[in-house]
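Reminder to self: tokens first, then the designed residues, so the page reads top to bottom the way the pipeline ran.
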């Protein structure tokens, strides 16, 4: 399969000291990219062969990603990329609101280190001009990761890395990514502008409204797609 040939290219990332953590990093990235869509059954033999890793190493990587709620093990059926429920999406947004708004609220005195955020805004605009709505989605996730990074907390970054990876599972089910993501290009820029002006409170208000609106829009589309069987198949 062409997909497995492409996955085999990732073998070089493992180096000589292959570990389950490094395998899980590769699979997490591939899941986030939509390489393995929600509902896809992951074959131990095919993936292990493509990456050149042992069955035990791969199973440990699967276990790590199951703990992160990206995979699910179904008895007598195997391991699948998780299909989120609407309740999962709502919980993800509750977590985002708690963490992201707290990060902005807790910022000290300006100026703020917003270069990473500015880069994500530019990437999103460029992808939109090219009609690359998957790229816009990726840039949007990077925007929020850079926003969280303002806290300067490795623990918070790690927690939100998993949350954002889970969120991508929902994005991959959506059939009209332009409609979902385009309205937030301008809102990302407005948050950036407000942070550059040193208005921490204003940025928090914008972010809170942004996340509320994003949740409503995503749930509306996502619930319909899942009900129609729009998720990937095993």
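Designed residues (234 positions):
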């Amino acid at each position: 399969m062409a997909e497995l040939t492409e996955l085999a290219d990732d073998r070089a990332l493992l180096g000589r000291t292959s570990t389950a953590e490094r395998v899980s990093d590769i699979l997490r990235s591939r899941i986030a990219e939509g390489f393995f869509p929600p509902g896809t059954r992951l074959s131990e033999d095919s993936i292990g062969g493509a990456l050149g890793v042992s069955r035990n190493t791969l199973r440990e990587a699967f276990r790590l990603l199951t703990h992160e709620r990206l995979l699910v093990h179904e008895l007598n059926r195997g391991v699948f990329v998780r299909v989120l429920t609407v309740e999962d999406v709502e919980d993800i947004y509750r977590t985002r609101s708690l963490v992201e708004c707290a990060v902005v609220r807790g910022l000290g005195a300006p100026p703020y280190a917003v270069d990473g955020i500015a880069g994500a805004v530019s990437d999103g605009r460029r992808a939109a001009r090219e009609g690359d709505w998957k790229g816009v989605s990726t840039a949007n996730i990077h925007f929020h990761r850079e926003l969280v990074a303002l806290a300067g907390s490795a623990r918070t970054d790690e927690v939100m890395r998993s949350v954002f990876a889970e969120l991508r599972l929902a994005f991959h089910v959506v059939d009209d990514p332009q409609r979902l993501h385009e309205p937030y290009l301008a809102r990302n820029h407005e948050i950036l502008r407000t942070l550059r002006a040193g208005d921490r409170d204003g940025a928090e208000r914008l972010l809170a409204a942004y996340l509320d609106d994003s949740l409503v829009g995503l749930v509306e589309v996502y619930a319909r797609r899942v009900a129609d069987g729009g998720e990937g198949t095993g």
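The chain is about 70% helix and 5% strand.
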